Amino acid sequence: MADVKRIERDLETLYRISAPCEEGCTRLSYTPAYRQAVDYLRGRMEEAGMQVREDGIGTLYGLLPGRNPDAPKIVTGSHLDTVRCAGAFDGPAGIVCSLEAARMLRESGEPLESGLEVVATIMEDGGRYPGTTGSRFMAGIYGEEDLTRLKDDDGLPLIEAMKAYGLSGSIEGVRRRPEEAKAVLELHMEQASKLESTHTDIGVVRTICGNAWFRVTVRGKASHPAIPHAERSDAGFASIRLLARIEEKIAKDYPGKITVNCGQMALHPGAVNAVPSRAIFTVDYRSFEKAYLDAMTLFLEAEAHRIETEYRVTVEVQFLKGTPPVDNSPNVIDAFERACDRLDYRHMPLNSGAGHDTMFLRQVWDAGLIFVPSYNEGVTHCPQEFTDYENLAKGADVLLETARILDREKR
Ligand SMILES: [Zn+2]
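That is the input. Now the predicted structure with zinc ion docked in place:
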């Protein structure tokens, strides 16, 4: 069984490794605090008999060798970076539980056939560079050109941040190959309260939510607000009507299947007494099924067209980015559930509303994600986020048992 005290010590130490901040922990990628956290983990990994390496983008790996050095590895971990003023668990919990699984494996004296590789990913939480950037490099979705394209809030290109942090700037060897591993496992806190409210130990994630983001620009004509509506080219009301129709369509045809958010909206010229000549807003769809994302994307385009005629405006719909929903691998889901059953831990199937590195690593390897309960109504990305250490210990047990099950599976 996992050692609760070791998990607690590692997580509390990592929580204290932070840039100065008002409350909680701020550990953005490529900062002195991030380096200090990597150094701490490196020490713990070496102490656990692991071979440690850092790749070109700063991902940290610790390998506990298996009996067969040629066998594909089993990878397990999560992200080490945080948002600003974060809590202690989102990210590091998955790394520390993986590390604990490796320690237990070594102490058991019964090594796996495969090496167990603990991974601490960088640039997952979007605190500095966009979210899940590290895993996109690992999956080969991002390459050389993205090193200069991606910039932080201060406009600093990624490659400059990497060099200032002490990396060479080369991404050779960052991309992982399918033959290198059998599967990748991730443990994360739930970020919702289903597990806590049902007193369940482990959530076995089926699908990770997909999204589609758009920027919509509506161009009309500024005019005096006394002009009758029928004679205006009102970019403001055209936008509001378009958004209302999207919400109505979802309520009518796809309730509970897809959500929409308009998180940004700007009106120009922005005066109380001027009909807006231009409106710019965002649309963010989320769904566990690609078909709904596709259907609502088509609806957005078709309605944009109708609004042009109705409101005498032009509407430009720009696709910003999107990720289809990702189904975790059936064999890994099955292994997680068998592991929970063997350990007599209560488990339930869940979906993940938030994105995770697993989504992209799934393109390279079989992949699976488990959740441990989040307390305090499931809040995360703040110091109030909490998962108790006993439950994290159960998570570590499940990671090890799952690795043992997958290790015996033929590829
Ligand atoms: Zn996270």
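Residues 79, 90-91, 125, 188 surround zinc ion (CB under 6 Å).
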